[in-house]
Amino acid sequence: MIPTTQVSPETLELVPALLLGSRLWSAGGSIDEGELAALRVALLRTQHRRQLAAIPVYARLAAELSIDDDGLDPDGEVFLLSDDWLKGYDPAWADNGLPALTEWLAEVSTVRPSHPADVTDLGSWRAALRQQEVYVTVSSGTRGTRSLVPRDRMTLVALRSSSGVRLPWSLPPGQYDALLLTPRGMGSGIQSGAMGLGRAARRSAHLDDPLALDLLRRSAEDLPVIVYGSPARLVDLLAQVGPHLPLPTGSCVVTGGGWKGPSGAAVEELLASASTTFGLDPGRCVDTYSTAELNTVFVTCREGRYHVPPAVEVLVLDDALRPNRTAAGGRLAVLDPMAASYPGRLITSDVVRLGTDPCPCGLAGQTLLAGIRRLAGATERGCGVTGTSP
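The chain above was modelled as a monomer; its predicted structure follows.
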């Protein structure tokens, strides 16, 4: 078994440097935006060249489109892929064609697992592949076919390390409690995030635990608490705790996974309600944006803007799916050089507006304004719609 193709020494140097810069940025430290942008571009090019050599179908597509070794098309514009790249398998394979699904991973990524024996469903298949250091994330599948995102060890480490840019005020391990508004398991990205927070907490509980609210009340007299999960489940929590349950200084509420509230209420209004209920500064009640394919998270600030960590770059596209460098809004694409095992240059099905001026909160870099929406005809985004992925 060969779990992945060889990572270049340049990649091993660039990834830590870019992650370190993003962590410093998230803590409000002084950064050189130009230097981090150069690191990001260099790493994206390095990953592109490695993937040209390791992913035959990627190389064939690049050749057909005359994409050069820097990942640019004949007009000098960046090469982008649809997020359908990681959905191009026969959905029936997830039920009765798992060997073909294993082979498909090798067609769209750099991982090279051998097909595990005695697997009977998608869950056991994913668990067996983890033993080969191939980590497959499953998207929510709100547009039909689910993305299967195969991460090698380096890409997984980058994803986990990005936790340092999720919360500018991250709480030290063992010094907080966690109330997790997610079902147990690792079927979706938001569940994996909850598991990570729960492992580092002194005490943790899921919302469906009989003593979940007791944990909140004990935390109110003790440690700060992180309330984490989908907006829809936060609605459920607020209905249970009543109008006022002050939490200790340092506590926070973090939502994510996408949502359209049952009454059309905006996430901003929901977070404002949480701030009032728990007696927290509004800047500590935040929403996050991510996708199954993305290796970081965009977090809102007290101004309601989603901040893009300098480890990645966002682009807005015109109707021809070409980057529009002068437009303030359009379909979103993300350049993610942390994706070592699959192409990190994917077009999403979300429509966004870019912040065209510096954010009043003082944090540097690109921002997305609140009100991220789906393309016309696309269903609501993410595991926050149902609480978990299928």
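Residues 9-160 form one domain.
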